[in-house]
Amino acid sequence: MSASTIYDVARRAGVSISTVSLAFNNPVRVTQSTLDRILAAADELSYLPKTEAVTRARRGVGRIGVMAPFTSYPSFARRLNGILRATRDLPWEIVVYDQGSAAATSPTLSTIPLTRRLDGLVIMSLPVDPKVAHRLVEQKLPTVLVDLEHPSFSSVAIADAEGGRIVAEHLHARGHTRLGCVTERKKGQPATLPQEARLDTFRSTLAGFGTPLPDSRIRRVDYGVEPARRAAHELLDLPEAPTAIFAHDDLIAVGVLKAARERGLRVPDELAVVGFDDSDVAEPLGLTTVRQPLEESGTIAVQTLLDQLSDPDRSMRHIVLRLTLVERDTT
Fold it and tell me: Boundaries of each HTH lacI-type domain copy (predicted)?
């Protein structure tokens, strides 16, 4: 039986050849319903893009894909360092896929299983919707998730909920009773994101202390220093302004500190600030933050994937890494 062609896929999906090509090479420009039809047709026909046919004929291509929002969040570079160190002396090529945001689904996730360029995949913090999960399983692409969990895949998770509790306890011990939070805005994603888990336990722990966090003292913003700065000014303009602010991560905390400086507030005497990650900016700023085991999460993820590749029958692993508070000048 002859191999299926792009013409067969187009005919099966009821679209033009150019639309099929666009779906594989630039899926964000194809409507979701059309993309679903094309990917389903390609699966049914076992279609391989021509440039990948020879590669697919090999038993293994020697490549591991790593997908994460690298350019948007500095912490992911450190997770990638953990992967690179673990594979430095091994015959694996690491292929990096950069995505814009951890708060929105990536269209590239839909096409990775079809391209057949990889022996395995590590996905960091990018929500995996049911359609993508089904395709990864159907295409038998070994996959390990980092900073999120799914029953179909091994995972390396961070105890994000624990992070919210740690910060709440620390600020309560410092005597703060009016607290605020600046976190990243969720972008139409049904999955529970790390920042939501942190905020939920931050609020519940504060409520247990009798110092509830009302919605009026929470700001959800696009990721970046400037949106965080504006949000901090809004919180500090409230009649009962917070005396401490918990930031979704260290870069958001930079925006909060900038707003405090613009208002002439003394940190931590008049405003305490806590970040998350313990990124490279935290120590120079004297920022109190929650340290994530970033490099360790990358190392464990790729080791888990390599174990899975060497023994496909190996049971899935679900690993949870703990967090620690790093106290510095801002509290």
Answer: 4-58
